[in-house]
Design goal:
Layout lengths: L7 H16 L15 E5 L5 E10 L4 H20 L3 E12 L7
Family: Belongs to the asp23 family.
Length: 104
């Protein structure tokens, strides 16, 4: 048999779609797509995955709970879809947003 390699771009896309589900927006939302560039993937020497995410938390949300939900959802989805061990999901909250993204 051969090898199966999952690229960092695929892992970043899984993380992005996980984040979209928490914000309640569609992945092709033009306003929200700018957050895709705020996802960075690192690999450990053991080929485990570290996901670094910079995001804004919606105003009124508990920052800690919201961030923990992002971490949990991204970890579960990346692990389930790639069979990779997610060593960490690091969330950096860069601001608080009062902007509502349209659901479509």
């Amino acid at each position: 048999m051969g090898n199966i390699t999952v690229s960092d771009n695929v892992i970043a896309e899984i993380a992005y779609r996980s984040i979209c589900s928490i914000y309640g927006v569609e992945p092709d939302n033009k306003e929200f797509k700018k957050f895709r560039k705020n996802i960075d993937i690192e690999r450990t020497p053991e080929d485990n995955v570290i996901v670094n995410i910079k995001l804004e938390v919606p105003y009124g949300e508990n920052i800690l709970s919201f961030s923990e939900n992002i971490m949990k959802t991204v970890t579960e989805n990346v692990s389930q879809m790639t069979d990779k061990t997610v060593e960490a999901v690091n969330v950096v909250v860069t601001g608080v947003s009062d902007k509502e993204f349209s659901k479509s």
